[in-house]
Design a protein that fits this description.
Number of helices: 8
Structural class: alpha/beta
CATH topology of the largest domain: Rossmann fold
CATH architecture of the largest domain: 3-Layer(aba) Sandwich
CATH superfamily of the largest domain: HAD superfamily/HAD-like
Strand order of the largest sheet: 3-2-1-4-5-6
Number of domains: 2
Number of strands: 6
CATH class of the largest domain: Alpha Beta
Helix content: 40-55%
């Protein structure tokens, strides 16, 4: 293992409830009530699909740029002062850097959401050797594009990379990229993450697994 490619939501922090609440509020402002459960199937696929999938499901008129921008405005308000890193996240990142591993953040979210999350949790962008957002790849997870781009930016073959994911689509993307995958059960039950090489509750449990 020469590099670690981290997903963001559900791996380093948990903003799922906030982006879901923001999306529900955005659709409500448009006059269309939706349920938080409607978004579950689109978790980890980026906000284009996260919002667009629900709009498509109910035939809601959807205008990608303004509707997504409004969702992020609401999201920024909802998370202010509330986001925290998940157990083990800071220690795991520190251990990677201590061991001389390259690390990348590879999130399906747009750059603006990545920046909001980093700011709110106190993670510095310069801690990562590469940052890849969903806007930089044409095909979102479960396609492997985002992890292939992250590996390329780190000048590391995918087979030498460990992907850390929490979503079913992310596990599929990591395996399709040719990486080994460590899955966390922060968003989905273990039985749905069966394609991963290792499955643990969070990064605190992963520390002794990766570095006994």
């Amino acid at each position: 293992m020469k590099a670690v490619l981290f997903d963001m939501d559900g791996v380093l922090l948990d903003s799922e409830a906030y982006i879901c609440a923001a999306a529900v509020e955005m659709f409500s402002e448009k006059g269309y009530p939706v349920s938080p459960n409607d978004f579950k199937a689109f978790t980890g696929m980026g906000e284009n699909r996260y919002l667009g999938g629900v709009a498509e499901k109910y035939g809601i008129p959807f205008h990608l740029k303004p509707d997504k921008a409004r969702t992020y405005e609401i999201y920024a308000r909802l998370v202010r002062g509330k986001l925290e890193l998940l157990p083990g996240a800071r220690d795991f990142i520190g251990k990677c850097l201590q061991k001389g591993l390259k690390i990348a953040l590879a999130s399906s979210a747009d750059r603006i959401k990545v920046e909001i999350n980093l700011k709110e949790t106190g993670l510095l962008p310069e801690m990562f050797h590469a940052l890849v957002s969903g806007e930089e790849v044409k095909h979102k997870k479960p396609a492997p594009d985002i992890f292939l781009r992250a590996a390329s930016l780190l000048h590391t073959p995918p087979e030498d990379c460990l992907v850390v994911e929490d979503a079913v689509s992310g596990v599929a993307a990591g395996k399709a990229a040719g990486c080994r995958v460590l899955a966390l059960t922060t968003s989905f039950p273990e039985k749905e993450l069966g394609g991963a090489d290792w499955i643990v509750p969070d990064l605190a449990h992963a520390l002794p697994l990766v570095w006994p």
